[in-house]
Amino acid sequence: VWRTIIVEYKDFYHLLCPELYLRSVFDLPIDHLKELGIRGLIFDLDNTLLNWNAYEVTPEAKELFIRLQDAGFLSCLVSNNKRDRVEAVARVLDLPAISKARKPRRRAFRQALATLGTTKEETAVIGDQLFTDVLGGNRLGLYTILVMPLSKTEFFGTRMVRSLERFVLGRLIQRGFLEEPDMEGP
Predict the structure, then answer these.
(1) Three-state secondary structure of 47-109
(2) What is the rounded CA–CA span in Å between residue 82 and residue 89?
(3) Which terminal residue of the chain, N or C, has fewer Cβ atoms less than 10 Å from its own Cβ?
(4) Cα dihedral sign, 34-38-42-48
């Protein structure tokens, strides 16, 4: 019985542990991702690319997608947010998008893979939440990248989950599964 509990404990942390933990989506290591064979990028929207519920796309976000496209990456937005907002942002960034994704369920991630035309092995998920973006990506075997949230303003339910997320992140770092992001800005 104890052996089963220990295996499940390790699997639990594996499902919640991203491959990379970054200070910001704007710190994406583009060359490193290319070296890994990553061609497709699935982005969360709220507090990853834009502040929660913001409609205005920042110049920094626009520049990121220009750099990614120039580097040969294919990108797609996958968000649990409502359709009109997700599609409005996607139009500005000229990206395909999936709204009301119900992450961490795998269906929207599979849809994004089909849209991008990439395999699991050549696709990364970038988001600010362990229990939606990282868990969903890891359940499907995608390369997962966790970024610190852009803002403290967010959906009430997300705020409630953040304390548990901070606890799990602390354990992942404490156990050596994950390194804290470099807090030094460029």
Answers:
(1) CCCECCCCCCCCHHHHHHHHHHHHCCCEEEEECCCCHHHHHHHHHHHCCCEECCCCCCCCHHH
(2) 11
(3) N
(4) negative
Q: How many CA atoms lie within 13 A of 111 on its CB side?
A: 16
Length of the chain: 186
pLDDT tens track for 122-165: 999 999 999 999 999 999 999 999 999 987 766 666 667 777 78
- 156-174 and 2-16 are packed helices; what angle lies between their axes, rounded to 10 degrees? 120
Task: Report the chain's C-alpha Rg in angstroms.
Answer: 16
CA distance 167 to 178: 13
pLDDT at position 92 over 80: yes
pLDDT tens digits along 70-83: 999 999 999 999 99
DSSP 128: S
Reading the block at residue 144, the tokens are 């997962």
* Amino acid at residue number 37: G
List Cβ neighbours of 159 (8 Å cut-off, separation of 6 or more).
Answer: none
Q: How many CA atoms lie within 13 A of 70 on its CB side?
A: 8
Structure tokens at 42: 């699935």
Q: Do the beta carbons of residue 131 and residue 161 sit within 8 Å?
A: yes
